[in-house]
Every structure is written in structure tokens, then in C-alpha cells.
Amino acid sequence: MNCKRCEGVRAFVYGCSSEPLLFKVYALPCVSKRAVSIDQVKNHSIDPIHRAVSLWSRMGVVTVLPILHVTLSAGIVEIEREPINYKTTPVQDRVQRLKQQMDHGDVRLEWDNKRGWLTSVLKHLDVPASSQTLVFSKTSLQIRRISPSKPRAIYFNDDTYVGWVQNGDVIELSAVDSKQGGIFYVLKQQKAERPVIIRDQGDCLTCHASSKTKGVPGYLVRSVFASREGQPYFGLGTTTTDHTTPMGKRFGGWYVTGTHGRMRHRGNVIARDDRYNPIDPEKGANIVDLSKFLRVEPYLERGSDIVALMILEHQSQMHNLITNGSYDCRHAFHYQKIMNRALDRPTDHETESTRSRIVNAGDKLLRYLLFCDEYTLDSPVKGTSGFARHFSSLGPRDRKGRSLRDLDLGRRIFRYPCSFLIYSESFDELPAPLLAHVETRLIRVLRGEDLSGDFQHISPGDREAILEILMDTKPGFRAKANALE
Asked: Domain extents for the chain?
């Protein structure tokens, strides 16, 4: 807390998040004999940053420079307060729209004695049954109902996720709101004249707003070593997977159907509590029929498609990075506004800290968008359902018939390494400065003007193809590209 070499003092500012903000305070005249105590800052009743600046100003401080922005020990962003207001801000995600239609009597779900509301929910949310993946580890809400013989089914589209277990109490629902990220709901599995979708009040965020989801309300695909009961051996470690994860670390606690050549994964096998030899991956390799593991008849599909799993891994963390970038940018401008007011600066004054946060968030997002560090497949991958065909059919396609949804599955997931979620509403609704940074740098990368090492994996031909696809298929992108010429 004491100043060093008369340069000023360091002080922690409490009250604006779950962790402190750290500032370096420069003072004129020298305040080397003074230290700002925690209690002095905490005991003021006005806004934490504002009150700290006011206090330091009375001590002769003339300039306050933030040297660290919010530092969260687990990467969890404070979401209940300004500027996020996660629980109180109205949302318009896909599930919320269905909820409103049901509440108004415009949509009526149909009950199925075998699966409850599942089939009808998938229909109204436009979620394909072919997206089915099966997870048998007890790593979700209804753990008592989940086991290797009765795995949880997950169905998804670009922005919506549906979880179903046999004889479950609820159907688990989540969808991405364009500004707030993942929003979570449940629907009771009870036959009723007017079933009601209920928004989660925080239980889901125990897992779905953590360092594993980039610190924001979002999604994760988790690979664990699971026992015969489905209980994870946490002492053996867990892995949150995405397109960068080596195949050998993926799918623990999941069923996986499809062929993948000489590659091996952790799926389809029961683990032992043995740190040195927990599984035999050979037993779970290249499985195309799950009937020897469980009764598949209760499920909409007979498998747990490996291609669907790989898309799920990619898009879950893509959603998280988009939300993380949005939150980080909004927090930066929120704190900048407070600082500008406290220091009597123009309201539109942009600080170096704010600009740095925008650039850092944007660069992280762009790297993932363009599949930097993607794991290179050693063998071709082929699923067992119609998911790959359905997914690719969704387009959009450019004048040459190409799409960002075209799959490769030989050496990488996609033929053109740029995420299809660039078309998502949440991407388009990013704060304007962040979106401008991402799109500007993206265009320069695709034109070959940005040759930084991060993007060496994209060949000149693929850069040209991705640029042409986006100019033909993403509204407004051609004009943005032309404006940078």
C-alpha cells in the first residue's frame, strides 16, 4: 500500500466486483508519507471507483491511472450489477420467444407418453434430432437419473441446447441471447394443459458461469473419467474441450458413435480409479452401434454422433468468447464513464485501458473464430447420423456454392477455417468498437495484409475463399471490406 520512490501509492478498490481493482496513483505534491487504507476507501458511500478518486484527490492526487482492470480469481465476471444486470435485463433468445408464445396461447406443446414434451420442444425450437449426443457422467442437473445405462441426451442447433434424461423431472433448456449470453430454463416433465417454461434463478450458473465458460453464462463440453455409476473421478482430472483439444483427451464420460481411424479418445469406456491407467481407449474406438452399452430405444436416435460432438465442442466455446468479449467491452466503457466523470473529463474520452481491453478481447475472439491452434486430425472422421448432412445443408452459400458450414473431417473440422457463428445475432450485436476491431482485423488477415504468426495455418487460397464467401453471404460485409481498400 505504501508509495515507492515517491511515485505514488497502490490501493485496492473494493465493492465493484468479487475481486479488487488495482490502481497506481501518482501524486503531486509527493504523498510518500501517506498510505491509502482499505477502510478509508470502503467507508465512503458513493460509487467505489468514484469515492476512491475523490479520496485521493483530497490527498493531492492529480492523476489516477488504472494499471490492472478487473481481475477475477476464477475468471468469473460480475454479472448481477451494472452494466450487465444478467437477471433483470429482458432477453429475447429462442427459448424465451417460445415461452412467450406458450404463455399467450399461440403455441401448444404436444405430450408424448414415452418422452414427455421432448419431441414437441425440439420441433418448436427447430433443433434436429440428428444432433443427439449422449453423456453418461453425472455432471449436470439431474445426476440421480444419469448413468451409463441411462445417459443424458443433448440436442442443439446454432444457439439453443436441450437436455433430456429418461424419467427426468424436467427438460433442461438454454439459448443464447444476443447481448446477455447463455440463458437457462427448465420445463417440468408433467402432462399439463398449459406447461410453463421457467427461467433458472441461478442454480445452473454454478457450472455454467465459471472459468470453464470464460467467466460468463455459457456452455462447456467436459471430458471426465467416469465410474460404472457415472460418477467422475475428479482426482484423475477433467478437461473442458474445444477444437484445440487433442483427440486423446476428448469425450470422457460420453458415448461416441462414428469412425475415426487410428485416433483414440476417452469415450465409450468406464474408468478405473487408477491414476496411471484409468481407461483402455481401444475398447471405445470406432464404435458405430451403442446397443451393447445400453438400450437405445428410449432415445430419438440410436447413436451419439462424433461429428455432432465436435461441432458442439467448437460452438460452445465460441459462444462463450463472444459473450466474454461483449461483457468485457461493456465493463470497460462502464468504468471509463465513471472515471471520466470523477476526473471531469469529456464523457467520450477513451482511456488507454479501455482501448487495450477492446483489442485484447477482440484478438482472443478472432483467433478462435479462425481456428488458431486447431487440433490436426490424424485420420478421417465420419458420423453415424444425418447430422453432418443436415448441418452442411443450412448454408448460406456464395455464388460458387461454397459455405462456411462445409465440412472437411479429414485434417480439420471445416473446409474453410472460419466459424459459422460469425453469422450469429450475438456476433452482430457485439459492442460497436469491439465488432469494428474484429471485422477490420479479419478483413486484413483474409487479404493477406496481416501475416502475423497466429494465422499462418490459413493458406492464401483459403483466405481468399473465406473473404469471398463472407462478402457474398454476410449482409454488410462487402461494404466494410470495400471501405478498407
From this structure: 9-68, 321-380+387-483
Given the C-alpha cell 453464462, which residue does it identify?
217
Distance separating alpha carbons of residues 275 and 300, to the nearest angstrom? 36
The one-letter amino acid code at 211 reads S
127/424 Cα distance (integer angstroms): 16
As a whole number of angstroms, the distance between CA 260 and CA 403 comes to 24
Cell for 456? 499462418
Tens digits of per-residue pLDDT, 346-398?
A: 988 989 999 999 999 999 999 999 999 999 999 999 999 999 999 999 999 99
Under DSSP, is residue 182 helix (H, G, I), strand (E, B) or coil? strand
Q: What is the Cα–Cα distance from 308 to 390, expressed in whole angstroms? A: 11
Look up residue 32 and give its three cell numbers. Answer: 510518500
* Helical axes 460-473 vs 432-446, angle rounded to 10°: 130
DSSP string, 221-244: EEE--B-TTS-B-GGG--EEE-TT
Residue 340, amino acid: N
440-454: per-residue pLDDT in tens?
A: 999 999 999 998 889
Show Cβ contacts of residue 355 under 8 Å, excluding neighbours closer than 6 positions. none
